[in-house]
Design the sequence.
């Protein structure tokens, strides 16, 4: 897991969107105090259709770029730090050109792009940032220093709504980011950018939950973001179900849905814990057979589990609870699970657990209790 989930999301998100257009490096080291550029982009492709689909981000990607996204509003010192990175990178390029006895051309020079949720007029004026002429086609929310600096700043919360700005507004905060997520979810389900961006959002959600404190102390904005992402799981699963329906076979529909749910849950848990232990893997398969609404609720519940030393055990307990409830409470055999049922089930070896879970749909609660008692003696 990452200590700074929003920063990691921004880097991976920009890398995903820009990689079809050129070379992308994240956390690129520069000289001096070994500063790192968040995203270094060097275009190698000029696919007009793809560039246009990225809107304002495509305009940013028209030239070599140093991209510095900020989760919180950028301050004076951070802008100075970004400019130092830009100057150091230019110096590096100059040294390489000198060694090769070449002259550094204008088109080889990077432009610094600072992406910030908001920027006050006082901050902008203090540096001399100015909005470009409307005829230049940048739109509201984009500012530049004088041309010689090659520095641009995008105040994300000032960007107008629409497909032209959606990809950058995904890096905003609060309602701005949530609105962009809603617009993303409305894209056609076969849009590859939509699919890739959703996967990164799922990872962001898992990282937020893995790194944040229990609910009472959690950042309200992050919690709202988690809840905004959660419904996208259901859309993803419905798309898998629809794909099965188009195959025209009931078995295909169910297999498509269950496989989609299995992959999402597995990916979600791997982000949080890394390699999954055999006991957790054994629980994932029966969980993938849950109805879409139940599965979506489970993902939300997993997201809101507090991080801590016993979080892995909490996850296994919740997975086991859902499997047992599906078999015995929803079928009407029980009104509530016996107190020791979940601990006894999880006390089995991974192999025995897998075998028992495979037989679970055919077992009564009495048969299950007897099997557990026999296995644990």
Sequence:
């Amino acid at each position: 897991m990452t200590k700074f989930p929003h920063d990691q999301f921004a880097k991976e998100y920009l890398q995903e969107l820009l990689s079809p257009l050129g070379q992308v490096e994240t956390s690129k080291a520069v000289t001096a105090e070994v500063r790192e550029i968040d995203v270094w982009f060097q275009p190698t492709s000029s696919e007009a259709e793809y560039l246009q689909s990225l809107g304002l981000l495509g305009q940013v990607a028209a030239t070599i770029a140093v991209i510095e996204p900020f989760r919180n509003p950028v301050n004076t010192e951070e802008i100075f730090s970004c400019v130092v990175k830009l100057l150091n990178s230019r110096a590096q390029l100059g040294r390489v050109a000198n060694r090769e006895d070449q002259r550094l051309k204008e088109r080889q020079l990077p432009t610094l792009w600072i992406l910030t949720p908001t920027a006050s007029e006082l901050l902008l004026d203090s540096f001399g940032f100015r909005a470009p002429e409307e005829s230049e086609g940048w739109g509201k929310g984009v500012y530049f220093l004088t041309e010689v600096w090659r520095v641009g700043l995008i105040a994300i919360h000032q960007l107008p709504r629409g497909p032209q700005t959606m990809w950058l507004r995904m890096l905003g905060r609060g309602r701005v980011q949530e609105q962009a997520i809603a617009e993303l979810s409305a894209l056609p389900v076969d849009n590859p950018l939509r699919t890739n961006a959703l996967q990164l959002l799922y990872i962001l959600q898992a990282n937020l939950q893995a790194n944040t404190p229990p609910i009472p102390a959690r950042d309200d904005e992050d919690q709202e973001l988690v809840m905004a992402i959660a419904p996208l799981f259901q859309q993803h699963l419905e798309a898998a179900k629809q794909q099965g329906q188009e195959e025209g076979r009931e078995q295909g529909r169910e297999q498509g849905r269950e496989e989609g749910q299995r992959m999402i849950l597995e990916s979600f848990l791997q982000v949080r814990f890394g390699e999954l232990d055999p006991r957790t893997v054994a629980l994932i398969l029966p969980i993938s057979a849950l109805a879409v609404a139940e599965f979506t609720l489970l993902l939300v519940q997993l997201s809101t589990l507090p991080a801590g030393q016993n979080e892995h055990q909490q996850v296994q307990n919740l997975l086991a609870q859902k499997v047992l409830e599906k078999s015995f409470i929803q079928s009407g055999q029980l009104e509530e699970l016996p107190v020791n049922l979940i601990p006894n089930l999880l006390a089995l070896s991974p192999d025995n657990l897998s075998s028992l879970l495979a037989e679970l749909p055919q077992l009564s609660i009495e048969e299950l209790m007897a099997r557990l008692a026999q296995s644990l003696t």
Notes: The two ends are 38 Å apart (CA to CA).
